[in-house]
Amino acid sequence: MTLALHLYRRIMRRGRVIGLLALAAVPGLVFWLSAFDAPDDELITLYTDVLASVGYTFAIAALILTTATLRDERDSGTLPYIYMRPIARVNMAAQSLAAGTAAALVIGVGGWIASAVALLAVGGDLQAAVPSLSLFVAAGFGYAAIFVPLGYLVPRALLVGLGYIIVVETILAFAVEGLAQISIWRISLSIYAGLEDGFGEVARQAMTPVTPGVWGGIAKLAGVLVVGLLVLTWALRKRDAL
Amino acid sequence: MTDTIVVANLSKWFGLKVAVSELSIGFRPGVTGLLGPNGAGKTTLLRVMAGLQRPSQGEVRILGVDPRQDTEIYRKISLVPEDESVYDRLTGRRFVELAARLAKIDHPVERADTVLDTVGLNDAADRALGGFSKGMRQRAKVAAALVSDPEILLLDEPLNGADPVQRAQLIALFKRLGAEGKTLLVSSHVLAEVERVSDRVVAMVDGRLAAVGDVATIRAAMTDKPRRIYVDTASPRKLAAALITGSDVLGVQIDGDTVRVETSDAADLARRLPAIAIDHSIGISKVEPVDESLESVFRYLVEGR
Fold it and tell me: Which residues are paired to B287 by β-bridges?
């Protein structure tokens, strides 16, 4: 796992991590601000609604972080130092995905902690925040599977990734059910919904038309991961490594 | 001795730009200089050999293997890239250790120590690469390339930025590795530099082979090239008349106070010019050789083929 560790350390630059943790903490902040006058019995509903609708900030944080996994090496001209090593390309792809996923999870857990602290701050029960960890973890895996290969393959990966999040996940997925079924955010929400009984109406709308279900969501994420691994392996084998 | 690197009908293009054109050549153990002006295709050729870029046409075999098909070949081949880029935050030692670990070397720490010593970088090895001079970075890159004890070493302008002492040390190292039976391909745009590293030279221009052979052959071919020399004088007509009698002078043109001379033997003209000036009492204020760039010389070699 030398390569994964190297890539992880490289993308987790202090300034970048601080900035992205702040971005991932936005849902927690929004919830804290909106829950001041909320009745206690509506806290969880509000909590799920805010996470589902504002949680896209984590998607953007994950995009910035995970596209950098191999893109940083490529842009700085250091890719030959890792590419010209006796490491099978599928292994290299797996280690890159592992590094990107680990980085996204760190930011995701940071975002979740911020939301949990916000829930505590307005008098909520910390236990109630636990299921929402699944949202950040699932999204971390899913976005890394898409954005690590994207960062390697596409020169303007941030722009393309942002287009995916805004156009595909938030606009087209409402109109096209097929797209919704493979939307990372909706899949992650479906896993969260499978663990949380008090899902709010806004959160359900954000997940539509995907239905709640932990194992179904995990299976879809596993599929996305396999596709990400295959695409990245192909790219490392076939594309110029510069 | 068989070729360790075989390049067959290799072309590499980027859109409409052809970087390497139908190149066929083999490289054997020892040091070979890859010479050519900037933009000649040297870096692209080395990158394709290293498996970093796909050939658009043709193929490259490293020890009989296509480097893009079998990653195990990277136990036997290393590249020192031209780019100055390194991991600025890593120390020299960590950089070389990382290379050793990625290359799956046993005892990476000890091996890193050994190669840092080989390139004379042990004293500075615990400093961040970002603070290294260009020459030190080059040596760190060479150390990282040597860490797997490769049979084939591709070095893209490895002497760039090195001071004279560092140059001498690196050249001695390359020669020693070549003498040990390793295949070294050292690219440069400076003939004198290549001359110090190797007897065998491959010259490239515009992605094509311009000349292959020993340094003496290349030098002779370059000497044959007609040169243009501009001489500033107060008596241009008198000087032109005196010069035109020389057998090496191919043509003379007067432009104001400047006499433009085309000669087949610039060295001989340089010897004769002071004598002509004294014999004919001609004052000369400036002698300027033009068209002397390596690129123009290489173009001459290509056009003459």
Answer: B231
Is residue A184 within 8 A of residue A224, CB to CB? The reply is yes
Burial B264-293 (b: 16+ CB within 10 A, else e): bbbeebeebbeebbeeeebebeebeeeeee
- The rounded distance, in Å, linking the Cα atoms of A22 and A30 is 12
Q: Which residue has the tokens 């390339």?
A: B145
> What is the spatial distance between Cα A150 and Cα A165, in angstroms, rounded to a whole number?
13
The string of pLDDT tens digits covering residues B45-87 is 999 999 999 999 999 999 999 999 999 999 999 999 988 788 9
Which of A81, A87, A96 should we substitute to test contact with B (largest number of B Cβ atoms within 10 Å)?
A: A81
- Contacts with B, A 42-101, CB within 8 Å: 76-89
Compute the average pLDDT of residues A153-180.
89
Chain A residue numbers with beta carbons less than 8 Å from the beta carbon of B104 are 85-86
Whether B288 has a pLDDT exceeding 90, the answer reads no
pLDDT at res. B221: 66
Most confidently predicted of A45-49, A61-65, B14-18 = A61-65
B103/A contact by beta carbon, under 8 A = yes
For A70, phi then psi, to 5°, come to: -105, -20
Q: How far apart are CA B229 and CA B17, in angstroms?
A: 34
Element (DSSP H or E) covering residue A55: none
Amino acid present at B181: G
Q: Which residue has the tokens 């104001």?
A: B256
Q: What is the pTM of this model?
A: 0.84
